[in-house]
Design brief:
The protein starts with a helix and ends in a 7-residue tail after the last helix. The longest helix is centred in the middle third of the chain and has 79 residues. By secondary structure, the protein is mainly α.
Length: 132
């Protein structure tokens, strides 16, 4: 057998070689797909870490603002209690009283009333002093 005959002679197609070639192509494709998935996983992991940092930061801000709000509520309650008598006195002093001669009392729904006396709860629930 000469060289030309040997080179030109074809082998019989072997089904195992074809199967092996297909499997190698699938393996290369799978390796590429795994590489892409790993890149996406890395990106998602980075985004998750950033999101977790943002959540922790926002929660700390919420906690700070909640504490500040609670302090302000306490201060407001204290100031309302402290200045309630002054506010009541001011409201009584600024009450609008219309003399009877100016008020139209011809309609029963518009009957004359006296000015509303604004007092604190303590004054309202304290019995009057008999000595006074």
């Amino acid at each position: 057998m000469n060289i030309t005959t040997r080179l030109t002679r074809r082998r019989k197609p072997n089904p195992l070689h074809d199967e092996n070639r297909k499997l190698r192509a699938q393996l290369v494709g799978a390796a590429k797909a795994i590489g892409e998935v790993e890149k996406k996983y890395t990106t998602v992991s980075e985004h998750l870490a950033e999101s977790q940092e943002t959540v922790v930061s926002q929660q700390a801000t919420i906690d700070d603002l909640t504490a500040e709000r609670d302090d302000l509520h306490e201060q407001l309650a204290y100031l309302r209690e402290r200045f309630a008598p002054q506010l009541a006195d001011e409201a009584n002093a600024l009450a609008v009283a219309v003399p009877r001669m100016v008020r139209d009392i011809s309609n029963p729904a518009d009957q004359a009333t006296e000015p509303i006396r604004v007092i604190t709860l303590r004054q309202a629930h304290t019995p009057p002093d008999p000595a006074a």
